[in-house]
Amino acid sequence: MKEHVYKTALIGTGRIGFTLGFDKKREQPASHTMALKKNKHFLIEAGCDSDNKRLANWKQFTSAKKVYANAGALFEDFSPEVVVIAVNENAHLDTALKAIAAKPRLILLEKPVALHLDDAFKIQTASTEYGVPILINHERRFSEDYRIAKKYIAKIGKILTINARLDSGLYVYNPAAEHSGEYSLLHDGTHLVDTVLYLLENTCGEENILKNCTISSISCDDQNNKIIRSVSAHFETDICADVNLFFSGQSRFFGFEIDIIGSEGRIKVGNGIFELYKREESKLYTGFYSLEKDKSIRRPKKTRYFSNMIKNAADFLNGSSPLLSNLQTGINAMKVLEKIKESFL
What we know:
By secondary structure, this protein is an alpha/beta fold. The protein is 30% helix and 26% strand. Strands 8-9-10-7-11-12-13-14 form an eight-stranded mixed sheet, with helices on one face. Strands 3-2-1-4-5-6 form a six-stranded parallel sheet, with helices on both faces. Helix 4 (92-101) packs parallel to helix 5 (117-130) and helix 6 (144-152) packs across helix 8 (189-200). The protein starts with 5 loop residues before the first strand and ends with a helix.
């Protein structure tokens, strides 16, 4: 029996939609276009972008049959089975609502769900009303190294402390960027929060995992005290009373890491980081135990973060898997970010 191939439309042919697929330093595929082309279950038939030159380059590369300058024109002329939305955060709400109204079988929506939590709820309402499922591209849920880390949590005993941090040179929050979403708390912070939730949740989409938010520290810009350069937030969970999320916009490097310390082990995972530790009899002190690297488990050479996401979309459409990153998981991350944001608004 011939397998079904899903007619797919891509809205947004920029970095994550297309051009990151040419980054020689990144593990490939690193864009929606490249990942879709590598999966036999999808056929890219249409594309949409307001940048004519970018769209023309994309059309030449993909040989897509149809291209459009805006989403409205796309849905008036074409009925895709799958819609990928890879536009800027400030266009998520309008684009998602148009896509939902077209009733595709599945929407793949870039993170974060929307610019604001209220917008995310509007997308959720429309999704429920039209019966259109939405996969959110929080890519670390699909990455093999994070999947291994999640399984390893059962081996480290009682979770004592979780420290997660994001470092970049982009301000954590700037009120001038409120309508664009160009600040790190939202743009990359959504990944940090979602990954912590993923590692801790028992079921996909479990709500209210991080509780009792308190702000440990805030640092403002030297020239404008309304611009936040760093913030540290403390949370509690049912299984760990000490969860710390730190966001820096003062770093001259990009860093992403999560450190989970248990009573019998430790997990360190992040960009270029993968270390698992287990309790063993100490080599240094008689009668004591130390943590030693678990050399039986290595970081996978390929994390397959993007290809696994597209595979999950195909498996869902074929009825063999639930969505492993859905609208509810995306909204859960936004709720945590909103709690942090409330501290400096």
